[in-house]
Write a structure and sequence with these properties.
Blueprint: H1 3-18, E1 21-25, H2 31-42, H3 56-65, E2 72-77, E3 80-89, E4 99-106, H4 115-126, E5 134-140, H5 144-152, E6 156-167, E7 170-180
Parallel strand pairs: 4-5
Antiparallel strand pairs: 1-2, 2-3, 3-4, 5-7, 6-7
The protein binds coenzyme A (COA).
Residues 41, 44, 47, 103-106, 111-117, 137, 143-146, 148-149, 152 line the site of coenzyme A.
Length: 184
């Protein structure tokens, strides 16, 4: 990165770091920005197997279809939503009822300022009240930030599925991370 864009990014991150942040449940009015942040992450090629684009109407339906144990949160800074996170049941099998998969997505120009860490910490606090005893994350090969985020939040690496799915034409490994929320 040359000096001018690097300075602009640094000053943006300083602003992001210093502004008060609020995490709240996502509402239908957040659908557009949730879709935009999702599509930015999809463009990295290492965040998710999902393909875009996601517009407000599609994300509104997605939000409305989520059950009580699959909530979505957004992080607001100033008047803008800068990140979103979600929990979803890991499996339909009843014996895995206490296991949830998490996702965290931060707007591209706000990454590296601690927002993802705050969102994941908040998910860890919310999950037990939703009946979950463990959070699991699925980290695609090459997602260094996603893996660092999980390890920083106390998750452990379970192992790596080889060629677990495809992004475009390319197979991707997936590293599974987990954190138990109440084990002795
Ligand atoms: C992964 C993601 C959510 C991290 O959020 P973030 O706000 O950038 O992360 P934070 O600033 O809170 O940093 C969390 C930790 O990860 C580390 N980290 C952040 N970016 C990193 C990178 N590119 N490479 C290595 N480590 C990185 C930070 O140093 C920090 O650890 P530390 O506290 O020990 O320094 C964000 O990069 C993102 O939205 N990526 C696209 C979506 C995605 O991949 N989500 C994960 C799948 S669930």
């Amino acid at each position: 990165m040359s000096a001018a864009p690097a300075m602009a990014r640094r000053s943006m991150l300083e602003r992001v770091s210093s502004c008060a942040r609020l995490i709240r449940r996502a509402e239908s009015r957040d659908a557009g920005v949730i879709g935009a942040i999702y599509d930015e992450a999809i463009a990295t090629g290492v965040a998710t197997f999902a393909a875009g684009p996601h517009d407000a109407a599609e994300r509104r339906e997605w939000l409305a279809a989520r059950g009580a144990r699959a909530p979505v949160w957004v992080m607001e800074q100033g008047d803008a939503v800068r990140a979103w996170s979600a929990l979803a049941p890991f499996s339909h099998r009843p014996w895995y009822d206490g296991v949830a998969e998490y996702t965290v997505y931060v707007a591209a120009d706000a990454r590296g300022a601690g927002l993802g860490g705050e969102m994941l910490t908040q998910l860890l606090h919310e999950a037990p009240a939703l009946g979950y005893w463990k959070l699991v994350g699925m980290i695609l090969q090459g997602n260094d930030a996603g893996l660092a985020l999980a390890l920083r939040a106390g998750f452990r690496e379970v192992g790596t599925h080889r060629a677990h799915g495809r992004v475009g034409d390319g197979w991707r490994d997936v590293t599974v991370v987990e954190r138990h929320l109440g084990a002795p």
